[in-house]
């Protein structure tokens, strides 16, 4: 009992201690002091309202203040970025661009673009990656609605990356309708000659112009005089027609084109299209034109050999569209010089391979005939004027049966074939009169005298070629006296078909000449009649007319033919 009483007493004491401790803890003045301090603070805050707000309200206000500025700032920042990098609409060199989508695949110079739901795009539309100044062109669309585009022009210091924003102009390449005389343009129709931008009021037109109405085409056959003897005599050029200059490398195609530009009538417009030109050649051409004063009436468009195939493929349409503007807007005849149309075919072949199209015969694109037709069908005459074209055609390995040459042959009115053997012998222009032909070579178009004289020239040259084979095998003694005369007359004709050019005067020192077609016919009619058979053929080399020979002392130049050459009597 005593023990239990003791335990109860101890328990009571312990309980009392705990209760006392709890009460003591409850009666600690900390809470009261805190309350007093708060009250004091409030009173102090009432006296000093400036000090009260940051202390009492900061925890409550801070979240609200932090949320509002962050939200508004981020929206403003995003809108600023949108204005800088993804503008709603902007202009560059006559093009108005707006957002199309972003790049989701890059394969060399071909890109796949995912189009935004509200954006619209069409075939051949010009696109731009603005910050990188890269221009693209839409080729096709896949089953998902994505656009497949190839690069037309790009800054060499930039690259295409995934997620790049692409903007569209909703139009094809545009070229100026006026103000292009004496200027040099690239494949985008943008001046690159350092003479500044075009006037602000300049109007532009798409190169995707519809083909001419067949009823508006003028089918009248009219002779165009070039001033070059062998062309005007053997293969006359049709006004509003297409003439091809066929030849391999180094036979004089570019020089011949430069002389044709130089001989363009002053009142008419010349447009030079450099497809795959070397930079050096293009620069020399511009400088020579500027020196001779030809540049003032000439517009030049270039896609250099180092440019992308997309640029070289489009450059022909750029130049021809300018020629159409000259004809249809200014009502002036224009001359288009393409050097070389083969590079256009080659660019199409490269582009076709990049786009994954199956190659055709000779490795060329399957759409070769269609692409060539789209270019050639726009070169014609209408009631407003004419577009006459001279196109140099490079022959791979001098093979005139190459698919590229065949695709061009079908569109040409005149075929001017340059011969490497003639060039090696020093006969310039190195045109083969037996291989060159013209649709205009007919009595009703060129007249009876011209027709008969040219036919006689061709007949003698064919005989000369046969007799040359006999001389090579058996010597000239195997020929009869009549055959010897014909053989020598053929040498005279070959020599007189040469001609000094104005554009080569700085290299040869011989002044160039331009001969009227009537004079050409008269001079050759005298030669084929045998009037000059007793003269040395070398006298006729690089002479414009027979008057130049009459001024020489011919008493020392009469010759006889011995063996394989000529000696003075």
Automatic annotation (TrEMBL):
<dbReference type="InterPro" id="IPR050053">
    <property type="entry name" value="ATPase_alpha/beta_chains"/>
</dbReference>
<dbReference type="Pfam" id="PF00006">
    <property type="entry name" value="ATP-synt_ab"/>
</dbReference>
<keyword id="KW-0139">CF(1)</keyword>
<comment type="similarity">
    <text>Belongs to the histone H1/H5 family. HCT subfamily.</text>
</comment>
<dbReference type="InterPro" id="IPR000194">
    <property type="entry name" value="ATPase_F1/V1/A1_a/bsu_nucl-bd"/>
</dbReference>
<keyword id="KW-0406">Ion transport</keyword>
<keyword id="KW-0472">Membrane</keyword>
<dbReference type="GO" id="GO:0005524">
    <property type="term" value="F:ATP binding"/>
</dbReference>
<dbReference type="Pfam" id="PF22919">
    <property type="entry name" value="ATP-synt_VA_C"/>
</dbReference>
<dbReference type="InterPro" id="IPR024034">
    <property type="entry name" value="ATPase_F1/V1_b/a_C"/>
</dbReference>
<keyword id="KW-0066">ATP synthesis</keyword>
<feature type="compositionally biased region" description="Basic residues">
    <location>
        <begin position="9"/>
        <end position="60"/>
    </location>
</feature>
<dbReference type="InterPro" id="IPR003593">
    <property type="entry name" value="AAA+_ATPase"/>
</dbReference>
<dbReference type="GO" id="GO:0046933">
    <property type="term" value="F:proton-transporting ATP synthase activity, rotational mechanism"/>
</dbReference>
<comment type="function">
    <text>Might have a role in establishing the nucleoid structure of elementary bodies.</text>
</comment>
<dbReference type="InterPro" id="IPR009970">
    <property type="entry name" value="HC2"/>
</dbReference>
<keyword id="KW-0547">Nucleotide-binding</keyword>
<feature type="region of interest" description="Disordered">
    <location>
        <begin position="1"/>
        <end position="78"/>
    </location>
</feature>
<dbReference type="Pfam" id="PF07382">
    <property type="entry name" value="HC2"/>
</dbReference>
<dbReference type="InterPro" id="IPR020003">
    <property type="entry name" value="ATPase_a/bsu_AS"/>
</dbReference>
<dbReference type="GO" id="GO:0045259">
    <property type="term" value="C:proton-transporting ATP synthase complex"/>
</dbReference>
<keyword id="KW-1278">Translocase</keyword>
<dbReference type="GO" id="GO:0030527">
    <property type="term" value="F:structural constituent of chromatin"/>
</dbReference>
<keyword id="KW-0813">Transport</keyword>
<comment type="similarity">
    <text>Belongs to the ATPase alpha/beta chains family.</text>
</comment>
<feature type="domain" description="AAA+ ATPase">
    <location>
        <begin position="239"/>
        <end position="422"/>
    </location>
</feature>
<keyword id="KW-0067">ATP-binding</keyword>
<dbReference type="GO" id="GO:0030261">
    <property type="term" value="P:chromosome condensation"/>
</dbReference>
<protein>
    <submittedName>
        <fullName>F0F1 ATP synthase subunit beta</fullName>
    </submittedName>
</protein>
<dbReference type="InterPro" id="IPR027417">
    <property type="entry name" value="P-loop_NTPase"/>
</dbReference>
<dbReference type="InterPro" id="IPR055190">
    <property type="entry name" value="ATP-synt_VA_C"/>
</dbReference>
<dbReference type="GO" id="GO:0003677">
    <property type="term" value="F:DNA binding"/>
</dbReference>
């Amino acid at each position: 009992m005593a023990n239990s009483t003791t335990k109860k007493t101890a328990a009571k004491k312990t309980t009392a201690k705990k209760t006392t401790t709890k009460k003591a803890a409850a009666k600690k003045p900390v809470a009261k002091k805190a309350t007093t301090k708060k009250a004091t603070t409030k009173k102090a805050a009432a006296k000093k309202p400036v000090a009260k707000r940051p202390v009492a309200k900061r925890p409550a206000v801070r979240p609200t203040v932090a949320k509002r500025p962050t939200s508004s700032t981020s929206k403003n920042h995003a809108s600023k970025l949108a204005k800088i990098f993804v503008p709603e609409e902007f202009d560059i060199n006559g093009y108005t661009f707006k957002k199309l989508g972003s790049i989701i695949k890059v394969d060399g110079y071909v890109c796949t673009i995912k189009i935004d739901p509200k954006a619209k795009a069409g075939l051949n539309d010009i696109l731009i990656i603005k910050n990188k100044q890269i221009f693209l062109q839409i080729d096709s669309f896949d089953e998902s609605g994505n656009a497949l585009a190839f690069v037309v022009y790009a800054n060499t210091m930039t690259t295409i990356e995934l997620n790049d924003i692409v903007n569209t102009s909703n139009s094809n390449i545009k070229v100026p309708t006026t103000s292009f005389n004496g200027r040099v343009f690239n494949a985008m129709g943008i001046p690159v000659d350092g003479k500044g931008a075009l006037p602000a009021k300049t109007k532009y037109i798409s190169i995707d112009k519809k083909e001419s109405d067949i009823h508006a085409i003028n089918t009248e056959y009219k002779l165009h005089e070039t001033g070059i003897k062998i062309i005007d005599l053997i293969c006359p050029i049709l006004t509003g027609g297409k003439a091809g200059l066929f030849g391999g490398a180094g036979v004089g195609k570019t020089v011949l084109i430069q002389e044709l530009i130089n001989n363009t009538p002053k009142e008419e417009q010349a447009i030079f299209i450099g497809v795959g030109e070397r930079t050096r050649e293009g620069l020399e051409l511009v400088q020579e034109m500027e020196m001779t004063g030809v540049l003032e009436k000439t517009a030049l468009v270039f896609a250099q050999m180092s440019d992308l195939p997309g640029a070289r493929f489009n450059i022909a349409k750029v130049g021809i569209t300018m020629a159409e503007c000259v004809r249809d807007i200014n009502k002036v005849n224009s001359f288009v010089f393409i050097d070389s149309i083969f590079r256009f075919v080659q660019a199409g072949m490269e582009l076709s391979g990049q786009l994954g199209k199956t190659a055709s015969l000779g490795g060329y694109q399957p759409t070769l005939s269609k692409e060539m037709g789209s270019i050639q069908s726009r070169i014609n005459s209408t009631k407003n004027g004419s577009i006459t074209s001279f196109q140099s055609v490079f022959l791979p390995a001098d093979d005139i049966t190459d698919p590229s040459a065949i695709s061009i042959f079908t569109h040409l009115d005149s075929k001017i074939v340059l011969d490497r053997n003639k060039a090696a012998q020093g006969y310039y222009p190195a045109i083969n009169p037996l291989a060159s032909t013209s649709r205009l070579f007919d009595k009703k178009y060129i007249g009876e005298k011209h027709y008969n004289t040219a036919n006689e020239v061709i007949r003698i040259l064919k005989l000369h070629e046969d007799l040359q084979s006999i001389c090579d095998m058996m010597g000239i003694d195997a020929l009869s006296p009549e055959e010897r005369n014909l053989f020598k007359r053929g040498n005279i004709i070959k020599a007189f078909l040469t001609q000094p050019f104005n554009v080569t005067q700085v290299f040869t020192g011989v002044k160039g000449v331009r001969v009227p077609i009537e004079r050409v016919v008269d001079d050759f009619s005298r030669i084929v009649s045998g009037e000059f058979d007793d003269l040395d053929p070398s006298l006729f080399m690089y002479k414009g007319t027979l008057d130049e020979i009459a001024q020489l002392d011919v008493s020392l130049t009469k010759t006889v033919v011995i063996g394989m050459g000529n000696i003075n009597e």
